[in-house]
Structures are given as C-alpha cells and as structure tokens.
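Supplementary Methods, section 5.1.

A reviewer requested that the exact input to the structure prediction be made available. We therefore reproduce it here, unchanged from the version used in the analyses.
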Amino acid sequence: MNTPIDQSGASSLPALPVGVWKLVSYTTQDPESGEMFHPFGPGATGYLTYTAGGHMSAILQAGERPRFSAGNRINAPEAERARAFSSSTTYAGRYTWQGDRVIHHVEVSSNPDWVGGDQLRFPSVDGKRLTITTPPLPTRPDGKLRVSTLVWERVE
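The structure derived from this sequence is encoded token-by-token as follows.
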C-alpha cells in the first residue's frame, strides 16, 4: 500500500502516504500568541488523496455550509457564492518529496493565485493518521500568518 519511492524511483525516502485520507481536524496557530483557530470551524471536513504515480488532490470545507437559495451556484446571489468560496478550498496537481517535506505542485485550484505554484507541507505518518503542518500562511479569520495543522485518517 505505501511504496517508498521518490521522483526518480529510488527507495531512499520514507514511505509515501499513498491512499485516500479523510480530515479529522484542521487548526491554525498564531506563532506569536499561540492562540488556536479552526479556519473552517470545528466540524471541517475534507479529503486528501495521494497516488503512487505522483498526483495529489485536496478538498476542505466548513462542516456546516448553507445551500444556495436559488438551488444552484449559477443563479445564486453573489453574496452566497462568495460565502461558499470562502468556506472551502480545493487544489490538485503533482507532488514531490524533498527530505522530510512534500511539495504540492498546484495545477488546478479554487484559489487562482495557487495555480502554477508550489505548496510546501511537512507530513508525518503514525499508523492510520497523517499529520500535515504548513509553514506560516495567511489564514482565516483575518488573513494573519499562522501555522496550520491538518490531521487525516486513512480511509483507503
């Protein structure tokens, strides 16, 4: 299930977290005050997928998201579309390992600023749990730089 490979196929890196992972928790911490936040609320949900072929995808969203009043996103009022956009994030592309870090090479994303760029992550696996931390990034609720910690549980 976990195949220890790197970009060249060598077996020198730790086992890849190949599979499908469901979000258990998503928190951010202010590096100055230590204050903790739940950017998408304590009920955030999502999935993270890594393939043995080097592709990845991630989707995260707030746990309680209201439906569109018009029944679809095309006809929904602009404020409802903005709320839906700000309560979720998605991206996908290829990934590579560099030592103890994984780099997500973003090819598609709900955030157009990420497309064509890289997202650095620091993963660790403990049994069926994958914990990923980020470098300081702008986060909710105010765009302040915080370190995010995402805990995932293997589902496949």
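The first helix runs from residue 78 to 86. These observations are discussed further in the main text.
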